[in-house]
Amino acid sequence: MSYYEQNIPPTREQRLTIGDSFCGKSEDLLDCARSGCLLQKNRRFWQTGSCQMHLSLMMASTVENSVIIMHGPLGCGSTLHNLSPATVKGMNKRGKKGKPLTWLSTNLQEADVISGGERKLRETIEYADRTFRPEIIFVVSTCTPNIIGDDVEEVVRQTQKGVAAHVASIHCPGFKTRVVATAYDSFYHGLLKHIPFEPDLSRANVWVKEEPQAELAELEFNYRKGRTVNLFNATSIGPADEEELVRLLNALQLNVQIYTEYSSLEEYRQMSQAALNISMCNVHDDYLLAYLKEKYGMPYVIEGMPIGVKATRKWLLAVAKHFGLEDKANRIADQEEEKVLKAIQPYLPKLKGKRVLISGGIVRVGEESRVLKELGLEVIGIRAYHYDNGADPVYTSIAEELPEVPVAVSNQLFELANQVVRYKPDLVIGHNGTQGWLAKLGVPSIQLYDVDRAFFGYRGLFSLVKRMAFAFENNSFAQRLAQHVELPYKKEWFSKDAFSYLKD
Fold first, then answer.
1. Which residue, of 92, 110, 128, 469, has the greatest Cβ tally within 10 A?
2. Of the candidates 196, 202, 145, 200, which has an alpha carbon nearest to the alpha carbon of residue 175?
3. What is the pTM for the complete model shown?
4. Topology (CATH) of 201-339
């Protein structure tokens, strides 16, 4: 049975070669992943870990005219309070009118754990449909209903018959996976099973009529489809990055549709009306893109993240090749590189020799580490949240370009704190949420991903260089803060190897 025919999507551990516990050189990581030993590595101690539910919610919350139902205890939905402002901001930046999230909870209690929560779920779906009249209702199934055995899919199937909205179930119990990226698959699986992806061909009715303009309409439609690409953005490409990538694709005279954040049901219907799908990261999109190729025959490009001049040219050429536009893409890259290299030149002396530790998503940290080396910085550590075989091409390049740099696979904050104290970096580049801890450790930092600032393309390179130079010149806050903060770690911990808890 295909993954897409199953009620519940597979975890990343079931679908890919996955590891979340490793420290060594990139060459050793590749060997370990290919031989299967990465699957055997674990920890004797875990401090904490993220839940795939939160990431699924981040994606569901961006869908236009939707209502989210949290099927579980009330506390599981509390994270949605933080997502609402970001959703409104993102919608506005996309040129749409943002509005606060609408979400409900089935509020499962002790009695429901015994008797089941299916009745509550059915009633909540019906209430959401008649009260808010959304186009889409997302049923987010948390740990509790999965433990007690609620048949969420059957409730959705039966309830769908009596409501106007499309009802999509997203199965994202946190206990089933240690890899947060499973959330991408969970969200996409819910979309693919329950949301119509077939295009609205009402426009095509004119073609079957014996009218003079029918043939012209069909030719125009097919021409536009043949020059249209889908650019996929799953929570890690901000509006500034979108603008830069659309600018470069428009320079190739391509039309661009952006998915999946801030898309409507009508836009989802148009997803199959494109000549090519483009992804920045296999971790985000491989599950969805494989489906679109299987179902609609749509080719796709996953050519790494266009960070820095080399990677951006490579990415642009990979897209251009599909349309026979390689010469045009090279001309664009030549012009853009000349401008950006001249623009960053005054900042490079401030970066030379600075020691940087980078932490975050597996593909992004890999691509960015190579750029840092090109800019003259010393990469002293690469830290990825997980590893899977889709990242092999990136880390093969790292093994060639940065063979001696230690590579860690870890999502444990206590290990990051140890690395910062022992490595003594001049700068840490990490995901949002770590900046507070890094400042307490006396180290300046910049975000690996920022919705308001570009990282991708030529403008993204200029922005990154400028922010790093600023961080090196303005690091007194972190240094002063560290003098007045007591950390929750014993001094003995910082004398140990950060990965002393790893085991085979």
1. 128
2. 145
3. 0.91
4. Rossmann fold (3.40.50)
